[in-house]
Design goal:
single chain, alpha/beta, Rossmann fold, UDP-galactose 4-epimerase, domain 1, 10 helices, binds uridine-5'-diphosphate
Length: 328
């Protein structure tokens, strides 16, 4: 069985990928410091507790195991926070990731799947955005992802290190089992916060910016189900192991929804009223991000199964109802 080290595997996207890996016959080894992840998300899987900034622990792990590839999900993800605390983002998402890469290179582990982001594009010139569009991030978070992608390209030139960067658009939804899903403390993402407004009449969702040049003035994003993302990771891994080339793919549905349309979808799915309040723009937010995922569809054979926003929101709602009982 090919062992795959999944850093940040106890988090939202990582824990879904861990299940997809197992289903395809890989042996995931989770590496997570549980700073934002949950032990419960990876019950029944092997968990090694550690930081991606801990060179010695990583080298020891690479010595003991036959790791075919590392998938890195251990990253900070809040665009707004990255504007306020840029060094926190550069430290974790760049410096510690460099330490992880150094431990890999020094240990002869040469395959890497990187969680990148649509944030690398900034304000796009072409929509839907193709992979060869200009990379010009508008936030420190986006820059951390861009810098690591550049480092990965340098490693491709300087050594036999090969990687796939997967540029996620807006990961959303939850595993249909309702066992794992999105849970961040504090929560900053739109769909979980709209769910909160559906559950709690006293909570009103803030709509960040109502004067964007979009159909209703609010930001447009491309929401992609986390299980579809997980499938793409396994396909990218298989391609990397087979073809040994450094590549980048967008992962999105190819259709965009405004903040108000997301709120409306949650209202439809839950049948509940959603309190909302208009608020100023959030710094670092581009107006519209929609993926062209043609390359992933053609080259990886990727077929997203959750094309409708409502079907994504339904799985998120199932998870929300359950996680409150479980106390995440
Ligand atoms: N958003 C909002 N209110 C919130 C959280 C998010 O209006 O409480 C908006 C945000 O400005 C962005 C979109 O919803 O336009 C998606 O934001 P999210 O943080 O979920 O993901 P991001 O696009 O930053 O990765």
């Amino acid at each position: 069985m090919r062992e795959i080290l999944v850093t940040g595997g106890a988090g939202y996207i990582g824990s879904h990928v861990v299940r997809a890996l197992e289903a395809r016959g890989f042996a995931p080894v989770i590496y997570d410091n549980l700073s934002t992840g949950f032990r419960d998300f990876v019950r029944g899987f092997e968990l090694v507790q550690g930081s991606i900034g801990d060179y010695e622990t990583l080298c020891a792990l690479f010595r003991e195991r036959e790791i075919a590839c590392v998938m890195n999900f251990a990253s900070f993800i809040a665009v707004g926070e990255s504007v306020e605390l840029p060094l926190r983002y550069y430290e974790n998402n760049v410096s510690r990731t460099v330490t992880l890469l150094r431990a890999m290179l020094d240990s002869g582990v040469k395959r890497f799947i990187f969680s990148s982001s649509a944030a690398v594009y900034g304000e796009p010139e072409i929509v839907p955005i193709p992979e060869d569009a200009r990379l010009c991030p508008t936030s420190p978070y986006g820059r951390t992802k861009h810098f690591v992608e550049e480092i990965l390209r340098d490693l491709d030139v300087s050594s036999e290190f090969r990687s796939v960067s997967l540029r996620y658009f807006n990961a959303a939804g939850a595993h249909p089992s309702g066992e794992i899903g999105e849970s961040h403390v504090p929560e900053t993402h739109l769909i979980p916060l709209v769910m909160r407004a559906a559950m709690d009449e006293s909570y009103r969702i803030k709509v960040f910016g109502t004067d964007y040049d979009t159909r209703d003035g609010t930001c447009v994003r491309d929401y992609i189900h986390v299980n579809d993302l997980a499938d793409a990771h396994v396909l990218a891994l298989e391609k990397l192991l087979e073809e040994d080339r450094t590549l980048a793919y967008n992962l999105g549905n190819g259709s965009g929804f405004t903040v108000r349309e997301v709120i409306e979808s949650v209202r439809r799915v839950t049948g509940r009223a959603i309190g909302q309040i208009d608020a100023p723009r959030r710094p670092g937010d581009p107006a519209s991000l929609i993926a062209s995922s043609d390359r992933a569809v053609k080259e990886l054979g990727w077929k997203p199964r959750y094309a409708e926003l409502d079907s994504i929101v339904e799985t998120a709602w199932r998870w929300e109802s359950r996680r409150l009982r479980k106390g995440y």
